[in-house]
Design goal:
alpha/beta; Rossmann fold; 2 domains; 7-stranded parallel β-sheet; 6-stranded parallel β-sheet
Length: 362
């Protein structure tokens, strides 16, 4: 079996790394399973892409489609054109996509039109928010997927409601957590730890990039001011996503405890998250990592495609109103934040389960 592993954006890399290791382990045991690593080039910033390959032990891509930046439609088109050309020259038996980025949807469409089966890792998750590009990517991908690998029973039920055959659904766990648990002992202290004089559980990590939070200057300014005003002078470490930086350039937000940095590598960022008093974010993946590491998490969104991080984990949905920030931080500083637990099958063995299933399907 020849499998195309599709990686395009930062969230993908953590999800494919354990799959590569699991496939290599199967190969060593004599299984006839092979992979071709296809990097679409959707994320082309070094800190958003190259460093992840190095730190997570991912081999150099066999193919880089070089999609680059541009609008959603421009990126989608370039990825589809590049991947179609690749499949026409050298077809695979299976296209395995992960997550919900543009590359996920684009490559699954191309593969299906080339009569190549599609496997979707992290299938079935839904936010219910059709303003999110990721929600559209998930729905389109799942509508043409053949094998659905899921992270939760909630995702399983979403697929059942959509009419997916039970035999196509495989509840395996979370490959992102495989990477987290594998790499946890290797987290790297970033230089700013000493520069800022950070101390464990005495700072807050922030990430913001969703359009609802950052596309309007007034909304972003109000959110940041509410966080700064209610953080009780704790340092706020804010690795700034490229799309957020463009908006921030038009604002003049300065506070002695607000420290905006360049995007960090995976090992540096999670070093900070693990030791933070809390994380304020609008990222779905970060809520999974904080849940497993037991770090309080506040999500500035009205819905989440990962409800288990709220019902079982350490995450709380605050919405996008700046007025929700003070009450949440008051609970945090009163040491009354919920403890949470790790969801079922988020145990570091998800990739092995997936590859075992793929081998059984040959």
């Amino acid at each position: 079996m020849k499998i195309d592993l599709i990686a395009g954006a930062r969230p993908n890399f953590m999800k494919i790394a354990p799959l590569i290791m699991a496939i290599q382990k199967k190969q060593q045991a004599g299984s006839d399973i092979h992979f071709r690593l296809v990097h679409t080039g959707q994320h082309y910033d070094k800190n958003m892409s190259d460093n992840f390959f190095q730190q997570l032990g991912i081999p150099d891509p066999d193919v880089n489609l070089g999609a680059g930046g541009g609008t959603q439609a421009e990126q989608t088109a370039r990825i589809m054109i590049g991947y179609e050309k690749l499949l026409m020259e050298s077809p695979s038996d299976l296209c395995l996509v992960v997550g919900d980025v543009t590359s996920t949807m684009a490559c699954s469409i191309v593969a299906k039109k080339q009569h190549i089966k599609v496997a979707h890792v992290e299938a079935g998750i839904r936010s219910g928010d059709m303003t999110m590009p990721e929600e559209i990517n998930r729905m389109v991908t799942d509508s043409i997927t053949d094998y659905f690998f899921t992270t939760s029973e909630v995702a399983n039920n979403n697929l059942r409601k959509a009419g997916v055959n039970e035999g196509q659904i495989f509840f395996v766990g979370n490959t992102m957590i495989d990477t987290l648990l594998t790499q946890r002992a290797s987290f790297i202290q970033p230089p700013l730890w000493k520069t800022l004089g950070l101390k464990e559980k005495e700072y807050i990590v922030m990430t913001l990039h969703r359009p609802a939070n950052v596309d309007e200057e007034a909304q972003l300014q109000n959110l940041l001011c509410a966080i700064v005003d209610n953080a009780r002078s704790l340092p706020l470490v804010f690795p700034v996503h490229p799309r957020t930086r463009k908006i921030l350039e038009g604002l003049n937000i300065v506070a002695p405890n607000l420290h905006m940095t360049e995007p960090m590598t995976y090992l540096e960022f999670n070093y900070l998250v693990e030791r933070a008093k809390a994380v304020i974010t609008d990222s779905g993946g970060v809520t999974e990592e904080t849940t497993v590491m037991g770090v309080p998490c506040m999500t500035l969104r009205n819905s989440t495609e990962r409800p288990e991080t709220v019902t079982e984990g350490t995450n709380e949905l605050l919405g996008t109103s700046p007025s929700a920030i003070k009450p949440a931080l008051d609970i945090l500083f009163a040491d009354s934040w919920k403890k949470g637990k790790v969801p079922e099958k988020w145990d570091g063995n998800t990739a092995s389960r997936i590859v075992d299933i793929l081998v059984s399907l040959q």
